[in-house]
Amino acid sequence: MIKHIVMWKLLDQAEGTSKAENAQLAKTKLEALNCKVPGLLKLEVGIDFSCSDTSMDLILYSEFEDRAALERYQQHPEHVAVFPFMKAIRSERRVVDYEID
């Protein structure tokens, strides 16, 4: 199984809306990918409430059957369609992909 984790620090204002509104929009857009990509087992999105200096604003946690499923997800048209919005609202992005037995 592959685990794919992405964290974003969001801009205070972007796309004409606030950080909080963009976090909710991003959550909705990303969670809409559930059940759309073969091999995607689980996808959840969380919005940070701690607002500390070291926290990120948004996290995506997902699980895939294998590396091929992660690759399909990354190239899936509905996933690719979310890229411009995510790029426009973020100041930072971090990602970790790892495999477990």
Q: What are the main properties of this structure?
A:
38% strand, two-stranded antiparallel sheet, 4 helices, single chain, 6 strands, 4-stranded antiparallel sheet, Alpha-Beta Plaits, 101 residues, alpha+beta
Strand-helix topology:
Elements lengths: L1 E9 L2 E2 L2 E2 H13 L8 E8 L10 E7 L2 H9 L1 H4 L2 H7 E10 L2
Antiparallel strand pairs: 1-5, 1-6, 2-3, 4-5
Describe what you observe in this structure.
The chain has one domain: Alpha-Beta Plaits (2-Layer Sandwich). The protein is built from four helices and six strands, in the order E-E-E-H-E-E-H-H-H-E. The chain is of the alpha+beta class and 101 residues long. The termini are close together. A hairpin with a 2-residue loop joins strand 2 (13-14) and strand 3 (17-18). The chain is 33% helix and 38% strand. The chain is globular. A four-stranded antiparallel beta sheet has the order 4-5-1-6. Strands 2-3 form a two-stranded antiparallel sheet. It has helices at 19-31, 67-75, 77-80, 83-89, and strands spanning 2-10, 13-14, 17-18, 40-47, 58-64, 90-99.
* CATH fold node name: Alpha-Beta Plaits
Query: How many DSSP H or I helices?
Result: 4
The description of the largest β-sheet is: 4 strands, antiparallel
Tell me the helix content.
Answer: 25-40%
Task: Give me the CATH architecture, please.
Answer: 2-Layer Sandwich
What is the CATH class designation? Alpha Beta
Structural class: alpha+beta
Q: What is the string of helix and strand elements?
A: EEEHEEHHHE
Instruction: Indicate the overall shape.
Output: globular
Q: Termini separation (Å)?
A: 6 Å
- Average of per-residue pLDDT values: 97
In total, how many domains does the architecture comprise? Answer: 1
